[in-house]
Amino acid sequence: MLEVNHLTKRYGKLTANDDLNFRVENGEIAVVCGPNGAGKSTAIKCIAGLLRFQGDIRFDGKPNKSVEAKRRFGYIPEIPAPIETLTVDEHMEFIARAYRVAGWQKRADTLLRRMELDNKRDKLGKELSKGMQQKLSICCALLPSPRTVLLDEPLVGLDPHAIKELKTMLGELRDTGCSILLSTHMLDSVQEFWDKVLIMMNGKIAAVRTRAEIEQNGENLEQLFFSITEGPKGENA
Amino acid sequence: MNALSFLVRKQIKNYFLDLIRRPARLVVTLCAAGLLVMMLISSQKGSSAVHGYTDIRLLHGIFLGWLLLIGVPSLLSALKSGTTVFKMSDVNFLFVSPIPPKKILIYGLLKQMVTTLFGFIFLLFYSGMLMQNFCITIFGVVLLVAGSVAYMCFIEVLSLLIYSFSNGKPARQKAVKSVLYLFLAAIVFTILTVYLKSGCGKAAAFAAVSSPYLEYFPVVGWTKGAVFALIGGSTAKAALYGGLFLISFFLCLFLFEKSDADYYEDVLQNTETRFEVQRAAKEKRVAASSRSGRKIRVGRKGIGRGWGANVFFYKHLCEARRRSRFLFISFSTLVMLGIDLILCFFVNSSGGNVLTPNRLLLIALAANTYILFFMNAAGDWSRELGKPYIYLVPESPFRKLIWASMTSVLKPVADGAVIFTAVCIVLRASPAVGLICFLAYASFGFLFTAGNILSQRIFGGMANRGLVAFLYIILLLLLLAPGIGAGIAVYYQMGNSPETLRLFLSGLPAVAWNTVASLIIYYACRNLLSDAEIE
């Protein structure tokens, strides 16, 4: 479970995230959406412990920068950054050794096969296309079997097969009780599998809805999104 | 108003407005400019012939070598993947506009000249050294920089011409490459011939690298000839070489403009590649397009060892193995060794006293430390900070800090062992002085890595990269000062002792300070990785 309490991130005078509060329960897929510059990526990076912040972020009750918390989550960045001089296989070995994952080979095989990277095992990180780098990044994040997965715009740059496979994987992870937080600005791409949506605007969470609430109130997610991000003009549009 | 002149005026105006709006950048710019002016003034006052000047003919050779060093790789790279004087914004906005391509080309070239000029201004920081060692004035230094800028502009135009001539035609590419290598071979042949005819030795070496025959070589020789003719006050000769240079420049420009090739297409691919590489560099990642770069020999597969934090060390070893067959001993080691030997050879040929082998070894130490000062910032540790793994891996931050920076500390140890053993043998210097130079160099490597860590701790949160780089240099200088100061004090305290003992003991304070200071910094920054931000 992921808990975010009073998360604030400032860059000088600019407040990128302003007092964010939310939870992602076990077995729940939460989607952070919002227009460009809303603060989605900054929030995900703070949660992953890559940026300094004010507030409190916990994974299963452990502070996000603690070693115990780091064991519990996997992070898929928006821009993949493979290690240029390691092969695909060696990336998996590196992650397994760094996270102390025993008997990792079988799981690595499965992940690479599902992401269609099994025939690229000997390719160096720098030899992969951007899409393949993103697939490798997904495999690396999922290898230690994390209890929470953080995905920053994960579908950008992936081919249709990988998008389908990633969506299936996210469904499977949810079924095993994993909590998932995913940021996107493309609502259509996550329409079929979200459980909770957090709409961000100007660094704040402007609305939180569960799928049940939307269905109960007869709201339309797209209309709600535009009414928040574009105001009354958006509603009329 | 003409669209291009509007664009230029607006860009210049906005550059200065941006500078004013960012006080930190303004302060760094003013400090750098002030430092430059101070250096020029003080070096003019300080230059004296008391110790004797180094033979100016050596500067002829250095300048020619410098021109070849900046020109030839650019031409070879252009042959392979083209070149560009444009930015992506030029492609997106100007290439599709109804502005005549000729005007756009001139705009691009002028902009490139300004960029090159700013890029080469750093050379003025060496003005003090040049003026104090060679008998030249500030005017001479400015001429050397101006000559370099003009020459690079010519290389840009020649690169465009070569690419448009040979793009997609392997036979032409091969022919151009052959001509280029023949040209280089002819220069080397000329130098060797003059050297042998002059009877070998130091005087012959000076005669060879400053031979007037070298000035007959098109453009590179003419540039050198024009610059030194002006320094020497020979206006007619300078006008001749300058004229030849200008004719070549405009001839290349004319041929390129008249060539059938569509230059938009010629520069497009390279502009896109450069844009992606620059963007990737800003984000500290590898551009997908950079995969066309140097081929990496994979060799033995697998990381093989490490469990938890120490896997970073074994990963770095695996990467080092792929960069060089000899692990830490790489091409840069050989380059430093070469620089040391050449430096020692020429230092003793200056007009002053001849230095003993032990003192030459100290000069090699100073040169290597100077190179390490800048090189260390690009080591494995710095690269690791640009990737998320170092922050994400569930291990103690201190253990990760130690293991992830281990190869950055070990590389200078390996380099130092090879370089100082070799230089010590060649110079027949005292093994004790060789040993202290090695220990000092290794400890400087440790201190620079620790300084990098400390800089990350203190300045890591600052967004202005230029300011961070400036403060990082100041920080390293402050860290260096106590050890070097104590060493100098010991040296002067032991005025009557034998030279070997004096040099050995004066090195010990620096080694001790560097090591202790580094260990303290490591301990003080033990939680850095739990409190740092990804770059």
How far is the N terminus from the C terminus of chain B? 42 Å
Question: Averaging pLDDT over every residue of chain A, what do you get?
Answer: 89
- Major sheet of chain A: order of its strands? 6-7-8-3-9-10
Task: Assess the beta-strand content of chain B as a share of residues.
Answer: under 5%
Overall radius of gyration of chain A? 18 Å
Radius of gyration of chain B: 26 Å
The residue ranges of chain A in which pLDDT falls below 50 over 5 or more consecutive positions are: 233-237
CATH class of chain A: Alpha Beta
Based on secondary structure, the structural category of chain B is mainly alpha
Major sheet details of chain A: 6 strands, mixed
Distance between the termini of chain A: 38 Å
Tally of contiguous helical segments of chain A: 9
Tell me the overall shape of chain A: globular
State the domain count of chain B.
3
* Count of alpha and pi helical runs of chain B: 22
**CATH superfamily membership of chain A:** P-loop containing nucleotide triphosphate hydrolases
Write up what this structure looks like.
The complex is a heterodimer of chains A (237) and B (535). Chain A has 237 residues and is α/β, with parallel strands linked by helices. Chain A has a single domain, classed as 3-Layer(aba) Sandwich (Rossmann fold), CATH 3.40.50.300. Chain A has helices at residues 40-47, 67-72, 88-98, 105-114, 130-142, 160-175, 211-217, 221-229, 231-236; strands at 2-11, 14-24, 29-33, 54-59, 62-63, 73-76, 148-152, 179-184, 196-201, 204-210. In chain A, the strands form two sheets. Chain A has a six-stranded mixed beta sheet, sandwiched between helices. In chain A, strands 2-1-4-5 form a four-stranded antiparallel beta sheet. In chain A, α3 runs parallel beside α5 (130-142). Residues 233-237 of chain A have low confidence and may be disordered. Chain B is mostly helical. Chain B has three domains: 1-46, no CATH class; 53-282, no CATH class; 314-531, no CATH class. Chain B is built from 22 helices and no strands. Chain B has helices spanning 3-21, 23-46, 56-81, 88-94, 101-120, 127-133, 138-166, 170-197, 201-209, 220-231, 235-258, 263-282, 311-323, 331-347, 357-375, 380-385, 389-392, 397-427, 431-459, 465-493, 499-524, 528-531. Chain B starts with a helix and ends with a helix. Chain A binds chain B through residues 11-12, 45, 48-52, 65, 67-71, 75, 77, 79-87, 89-90, 93-95, 97-100, 122, 124-130, 133, and chain B through 283-286, 288, 290-291, 293, 296, 298, 301-303, 306-309, 311-312, 314-315, 318-319, 322-323, 386-389, 391-396, 461, 463, 530-531, 533-534.
